[in-house]
Specification:
about 15% helix, mainly beta, elongated, 14 strands, Immunoglobulin-like, 2 domains, about 220 residues
Length: about 220
């Protein structure tokens, strides 16, 4: 019995050695997964741009808009969004979006908090890309009660009850076409009620005021 065990030991050791070599060879020859290219954040435009792009506050309601593009859209399965607030010590997973989506609105935000975001693309093999560039945004309360008088040169007025910002950005657009009619940067006012006359700065983009128009107002921070 003892001789049988002694004879079988070298055979077992040889089998273990062959299995170990086989595993090591497979590991050595297995190709590294190819990472997809990371998403590209849409650059933030100037607030004074005719068409605003990139991270921004949404015009209606309370939220932060993210925009991106995918270099290899047909190879991507979904996008993972990560966020860190000034109260967090690391980035946390926020949401997964389909590869056909190119924007996301973060509604779970608080005024005055600085938020940071980055994206990761995941391909069909579940391989993740490197992180995208990181973008930042801080949301402030919107001015309210935006009104205007009637007539060929209306006066726009609004109310802001928080700490006065550096200034305001007033945009006047054609209601039907969305064409920009007038954009004006209004300096700091310490009064809670602010009013300015139409084309007070001589920066009108069109020579005729379209009465069917919509005005939007942003803070300059």
């Amino acid at each position: 019995m003892g001789k049988t065990v002694m004879k079988s030991c070298p055979i077992l050791m040889f089998l273990f050695f062959m299995i170990f070599c086989f595993i090591q060879c497979n590991n050595a020859t297995a190709p590294e997964p190819i990472r997809p290219d990371p998403p590209e954040m849409v650059p933030k435009s100037l607030d004074e741009a005719a068409i605003e792009t990139g991270i921004d506050a949404i015009s209606d309601g309370m939220g932060i808009l993210l925009q991106w593009s995918l270099p290899q859209k047909n190879l991507i399965k979904w996008i993972k969004i990560y966020r860190k607030s000034a109260n967090d010590n690391k980035f946390l997973f926020l949401s997964s979006e389909s590869s056909i989506d190119t924007f996301f609105i973060d509604y779970e935000v608080t005024y005055g908090i600085l938020y940071s975001y980055y994206l990761i693309a995941v391909n069909r093999d579940n391989t993740e890309s490197l992180p995208s560039d990181t973008v930042f945004y801080r949301l402030y309360p919107k001015p309210n009660n935006l009104n205007h008088t009637d007539g060929p040169k209306p006066v726009f007025s609004w109310h802001y009850s928080f700490i006065p910002p550096v200034g305001y950005l007033l945009r006047l657009e054609n209601y039907d076409s969305g064409e920009l009619v007038w954009i004006s940067t209004v300096g700091r006012f310490y009064e809670s009620i602010v009013s300015v006359a139409y084309n007070w700065d001589g920066c009108i983009l069109r020579f005729r005021l379209i009465y069917h128009s919509v005005s939007t107002l942003k803070l300059c921070t």
